[in-house]
């Protein structure tokens, strides 16, 4: 059954195109600013070691599971989970796992496009010399002017979403594949140029020390939890993007090898982003621990005082925009794939409906920075609620259930068939990790993020009873 399935959307032309696409999905705004910041605050090189362990033992196994399920089902995440459950004689309710990912991705795209719009706007601001000789007050004022203007935010939000819809509407070979062929080499090239500029213009020693010097005294439970969360979220797991990309993967491509390469590439980009950012920050005596403000407020001050700052600053925000664009394309694709399969719409119609719907929902997040700033039911504004529901609840829960399905419910014959290696050492290693380590790791992230440690413990106990009874 599964061996004869073909995706109605087409296939990637090669393994390397898939690797570029999956890496583009994983690399986003969070890699550029969040990973360096979290690394520096949690022990530098010591945190990197913990993070790499989390990527190896939690992130890559779930990444491989999503690719496996996607290629096995050859459809959108919703329909893939439905047909695979049917293949294994399981309840059709497993399709809800696909729904979780698609809904989470839809919510994320709605507010992600708003933030990506900031990056798009800043290309022109920096290139136009807005931040030349700027002070902290000037930079903060410019940022608040942008976020305080509904008209400007709406314009940039719309422009970014239009860019995303344009690529997805053109299909796998004509849109996604052509985009990643162009955008991913551009992203790596720009990143390397900025790294070179940062190391020669900023304080390279201080920046590298902040990022890599190990401080094992900072390694504790909170640090390990931060590393687990970063490993899970940085690989775009749980939102259906990797699963739908896996559905376009040719049968003769090794899932294990490509998963490892994608995990490594994502980590390398995150580390290079830190090398690009922190020498500049320390070279100009700026504060490194500001999260999003590190990019939109702190760095713009540095670029405004550096030789060639207008050019390299604009290049940096082009990098941010490209990273956001490749991620947004992968987030919209599961929605569009499902609409094409289930409603029989053209890709153009599905892309327009899906993209415009996410754009409209994003208006709520956009207003959270101005008119609705003080509307905070439950202590969160619209933007915060969209982020909390998607990234704290739906993504970890969906990722945990993907691991459970791939390890505990999918037959060994099916998973071995997709791995194509038989009961090899590599397969048995993946199986052990996906059975025990990965679900537990994601459950810990979910429990900590939601404050539901006891409830998650009860849930895992119930799942264990269902599996072994």
What does this structure look like?
78% of the residues lie in helices and 0% in strands. With 469 residues, the protein is mainly alpha-helical. The protein has one domain: Up-down Bundle (Amino acid/polyamine transporter I), CATH 1.20.1740.10. Helix 3 (45-73) packs across helix 4 and helix 5 packs parallel to helix 13 (292-305). The mean pLDDT is 90.
Reading off the top of the CATH hierarchy, the class is best stated as Mainly Alpha
Largest sheet: none
Superfamily at the CATH H level? Amino acid/polyamine transporter I
Assess the beta-strand content as a share of residues: under 5%
Which class of secondary structure composition applies to the elements? mainly alpha
SS element count, helices: 19
Number of domains: 1
As a whole number of angstroms, the C-alpha radius of gyration is 22 Å
The second-level CATH architecture is Up-down Bundle
Average pLDDT for all residues: 90
What global shape is seen? globular
Poorly predicted regions = none
Number of DSSP strands? 0
Q: How widely separated are the two ends?
A: 28 Å
Helical content class:
over 70%
* Topology pattern, helix = H, strand = E: HHHHHHHHHHHHHHHHHHH
């Amino acid at each position: 059954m599964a061996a004869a399935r073909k995706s109605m959307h087409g296939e990637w032309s090669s393994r390397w195109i898939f690797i570029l696409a999956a890496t583009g999905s994983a690399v986003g705004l969070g890699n550029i600013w969040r990973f360096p910041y979290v690394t520096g605050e949690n022990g530098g090189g010591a945190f990197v070691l913990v993070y790499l362990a989390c990527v190896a033992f939690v992130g890559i196994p779930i990444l491989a599971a999503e690719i496996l399920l996607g290629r096995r089902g050859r459809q959108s995440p919703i329909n893939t989970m439905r047909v695979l459950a049917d293949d294994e004689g399981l309840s059709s309710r497993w399709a809800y796992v696909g729904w979780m990912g698609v809904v989470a991705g839809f919510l994320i795209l709605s507010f992600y496009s708003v933030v990506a719009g900031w990056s798009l706007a800043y290309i022109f601001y920096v290139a136009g010399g807005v931040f030349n000789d700027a002070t902290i007050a000037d930079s903060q004022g410019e940022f608040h002017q942008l976020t305080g203007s509904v008209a400007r935010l709406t314009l940039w939000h719309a422009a970014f979403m239009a860019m995303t819809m344009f690529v997805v509407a053109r299909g796998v070979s004509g849109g996604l594949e052509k985009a990643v062929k162009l955008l991913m080499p551009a992203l790596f090239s720009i990143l390397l140029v900025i790294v070179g500029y940062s190391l020669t213009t900023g304080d390279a020693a201080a920046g590298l020390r902040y990022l890599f010097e190990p401080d094992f005294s900072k390694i504790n439970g909170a640090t390990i939890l931060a590393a687990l969360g970063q490993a899970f979220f940085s690989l775009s797991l749980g939102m259906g993007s990797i699963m739908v990309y896996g559905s376009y993967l040719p049968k003769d491509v090794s899932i294990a090898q490509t998963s490892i390469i994608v995990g490594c590439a994502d980590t390398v980009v995150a580390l290079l982003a830190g090398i690009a950012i922190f020498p500049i920050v320390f070279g100009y005596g700026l504060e490194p621990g500001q999260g999003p403000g590190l990019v939109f407020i702190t760095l713009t001050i540095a670029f405004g005082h550096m030789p060639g700052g207008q050019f390299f600053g604009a290049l940096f925000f082009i990098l941010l925009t490209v990273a956001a664009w490749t991620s947004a394309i992968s987030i919209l694709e599961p929605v569009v794939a499902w609409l094409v399969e289930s409603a029989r719409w053209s890709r153009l119609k599905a892309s327009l409906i899906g993209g415009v719907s996410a754009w409209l929902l994003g208006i709520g997040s956009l207003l959270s920075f101005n008119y609705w700033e003080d509307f905070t039911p439950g202590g969160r504004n619209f933007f915060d609620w969209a982020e909390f529901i998607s990234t704290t609840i739906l993504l970890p829960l969906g990722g945990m259930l993907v691991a459970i399905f791939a390890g505990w419910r999918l037959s060994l014959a099916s998973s071995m068939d997709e791995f194509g290696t038989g009961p090899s050492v590599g397969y048995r290693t993946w199986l052990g990790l996906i059975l025990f380590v990965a679900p537990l790791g994601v459950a810990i992230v979910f429990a900590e993020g939601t404050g539901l440690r006891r409830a998650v413990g009860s849930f895992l106990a119930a799942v264990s009873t269902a599996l072994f009874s």
